[in-house]
């Protein structure tokens, strides 16, 4: 049995065409079903539905053989013991610093002010501001970061941006582009040794599907950005 860990939402949606090109069809829609283990048309392949933040953990400890997770998750939660053979180039976005449109970020940085920064990405934010030599107080949040500057909880946020519509709707502006993010295929090292043939087959099929997407010979849906 080969077990693949996926999160619901954009990663699941954007993984379906890759699975299809590997000959794998997921038999149930995780948005409609309450099942957390989904069967596929291949008797020896199943999909686990887990929280995006938990995908690396499932694969690290062998609860799943493979998983698909954002680079943001790997940087924030670590990637020890994970083999990362492919950048799948799906669920693309960027991680940025944003502030209220009326906050003068450049002069706050120039003056060496201490910034209050709210984020779910504490490790990424700490590293970014340390490299820049900006002193920050980091406030850990678990969602809706965009709210923090609006109510005075923080001067700035570090969050994912794809279309920019969420920032715009909340009168925030992007002031730093920290890095580009996309999703990665991660593989449990022991599983790769024990189930080399079927896992390699999936990796190769995904690699071919990414090439086909880029050459335009396959319709891969629309990925933002
Ligand atoms: O939503 P939930 O709390 O259940 O889980 P999650 O937010 O951890 O997961 P999910 O499924 O939302 O995101 C999973 C992965 O998708 C992330 O780890 C990223 O690698 C990737 N991804 C790509 C994104 C986005 N684009 C994205 N735009 N994840 C989140 N967003 C959010 C962003 O945080 C912001 O709130 O969308 C909003 C901004 O979108 P725009 O289009 O308005 O700019
Ligand atoms: Mg989300």
CATH architecture of the largest domain: 3-Layer(aba) Sandwich
Give the total of beta strands.
11
Question: Strand-residue fraction?
Answer: 25-35%
Helix and strand content put the structural class at alpha/beta
Total helix count?
Answer: 8
Q: What is the mean predicted local confidence, pLDDT?
A: 95
Written as H for each helix and E for each strand, in order along the chain, the element string is EHEEHEHEEHEHEEHEEHH
User: Major β-sheet, in short?
Assistant: 6 strands, mixed
Provide a brief overview of the structure.
The protein contains eight helices and eleven strands. It is α/β, with parallel strands linked by helices. A hairpin with a 5-residue loop joins strand 2 and strand 3 (45-49).
Report on this model:
- The protein contains eight helices and eleven strands.
- By secondary structure, it is of the alpha/beta class.
- It has two domains: 124 residues, Periplasmic binding protein-like II (D-Maltodextrin-Binding Protein, domain 2); 89 residues, 3-Layer(aba) Sandwich (D-Maltodextrin-Binding Protein, domain 2).
- A hairpin with a 5-residue loop joins strand 2 and strand 3.
- Helix 1 packs across helix 8.
- The longest helix has 20 residues.
- It is elongated, with a radius of gyration of 19 Å.
- The chain starts with a strand and ends in a 10-residue tail after the last helix.
- The model has no long low-confidence stretch (mean pLDDT 95).
- The structure holds phosphoribosyl ATP and magnesium ion.
